[in-house]
Amino acid sequence: MSPDTGTCRRILLYGNPILRTIARQIDKITPEIIQLIADLKATMIRRDGVGLAANQIGAPVAIFALNPQAADIDRPPTCLINPQIVATEGNIETEEGCLSFPDIFEVLSRPEMVIVKGVDDTGKETRLEATGLLARAIIHEYEHLQGILFIDHLSEVRRKMLASRLKELQEEEQKECG
After folding, report:
1. Is 141 a catalytic residue?
2. What pLDDT shows up at residue 4?
3. Can you tell me whether residue 81 is helix, strand or coil?
4. What stretches in the chain show pLDDT beneath 70?
5. What's the confidence (pLDDT) of residue 178?
């Protein structure tokens, strides 16, 4: 199934409790999971994301999508089911954003290289090694599946400076949820 067959879904904003939910492991790749993966890829591409975790579109299951092309790597969008970080190396500070936190970009220290394993949408065991932006995206999306948000890495002072914008996002999310 290609991203062309997926539906672009609403991305949950900061304040939605699903973003703090630890994702449930996938036992079986069902047609619903295949459709969720297509929707993840379609939403990620439409929103110019480098990655997107399933809980960001309201499905708290252990899947994330990656778009290597957004990191100038000539590979098609992919996904990982039940991802596990195998190794990390180095650290690099650079600016990072999140589709659940529009217009907020912060400098974070993240591993420079990451190796992650999981299962692809065909059920095949997959192992990815990435550096740079794609490594950052893998760590970012993996943390989403653990209920960890990128703002959790900010200092208390920096979070206080962002407090009004975070409150706006929470209010916007509340309106969307009715």
Report:
1. yes
2. 63
3. strand
4. 1-4, 178
5. 67
Enter the tokens of residue 23.
Answer: 């994702």
Q: What is residue 1's predicted lDDT score, i.e. its pLDDT?
A: 46
Separation CA 45–CA 28 (nearest Å)? 25
User: Which residues lie below 8 Å from residue 25, measured CB to CB, with a gap of 6+?
Assistant: 61, 62, 82
DSSP string, 85-142: EEEEE--EEEEEE-TTSTT-EEEEEE-SEEEEEEE-TTS-EEEEEEEHHHHHHHHHHH
Catalytic residue of the set 93, 96, 141, 173: 141
81 vs 126: CA distance, rounded Å: 9
Provide the residue count of the chain. Answer: 178
Identify whether the C-beta of residue 150 lies closer than 8 Å to the C-beta of residue 101: yes
pTM: 0.94
Q: Of 140, 135, 55, which Cα lies nearest the Cα of 97?
A: 140
The rounded distance, in Å, linking the Cα atoms of 55 and 115 is 22
CA–CA separation, 100 vs 15, rounded Å?
9
